[in-house]
Design brief:
Number of strands: 5
Number of helices: 3
Largest sheet: 5 strands, mixed
Helix content: 40-55%
Shape: rod-shaped
CATH architecture of the largest domain: 2-Layer Sandwich
CATH superfamily of the largest domain: Ribosomal protein S16
Strand content: 15-25%
CATH topology of the largest domain: S16 Ribosomal Protein, Chain: A
Strand order of the largest sheet: 4-3-2-1-5
Number of domains: 2
Structural class: alpha+beta
Length: 160
């Protein structure tokens, strides 16, 4: 028979209250248990003394008998100093999922396409501006001889 120190849920709907119990690992969560060794009330503030109550002598006895605490109960025991819980490290937990990666790729492609379109539009605008600057100079150069010719003709007419 393998023993577990675990939580058994009680209380009303949306008002949870847990008993910390020693039970056979095969029995149901809220079913038969061997002994109640504490309580946990998650509705109380984290700094409240009544949030977690433990009967430390009985817990130490059952741990000596080979009972294994669940992860949540192990956290309570670690806070009380009865057992040591090793910190877990799951570096993959923070990584985004496949769908999120695909959405990120699409976002990057759209941003690159938009940046490229803006760069092309800017280059076209600069090119048009350069042509506009060059065109008045050419027109002025073309107009200058025409103006000179007109001025010469007017001068000849005045001479006559």
């Amino acid at each position: 028979m393998s023993l577990k120190i675990r939580l058994a849920r009680g209380g009303a709907k949306k008002r949870p209250y847990y008993r910390i119990v020693v039970a056979d690992s095969r029995s149901p969560r809220d079913g038969r248990y061997i002994e109640k060794v504490g309580t946990f009330n998650p509705l109380l503030a984290k700094d409240n003394d009544q949030r977690v109550t433990l009967v430390t002598e009985r817990i130490q006895y059952w741990l000596g008998e080979g009972a294994k605490p669940t992860d949540r109960v192990l956290r309570f025991l670690d806070a009380e100093g009865l057992m040591k819980r090793e910190a877990r490290n799951n570096p993959n937990k923070a990584k985004p999922g496949q769908k999120a990666l695909e959405r990120e790729e699409e976002r990057k492609e759209k941003a690159e396409a938009k940046a490229q379109a803006e760069a092309e539009a800017k280059a076209a605008a600069e090119e048009a501006a350069a042509e506009a600057e060059a065109a008045p100079a050419e027109e002025a150069a073309e107009e200058a001889p025409a103006e000179e010719a007109a001025a010469e003709e007017a001068a000849e007419e005045t001479k006559e």
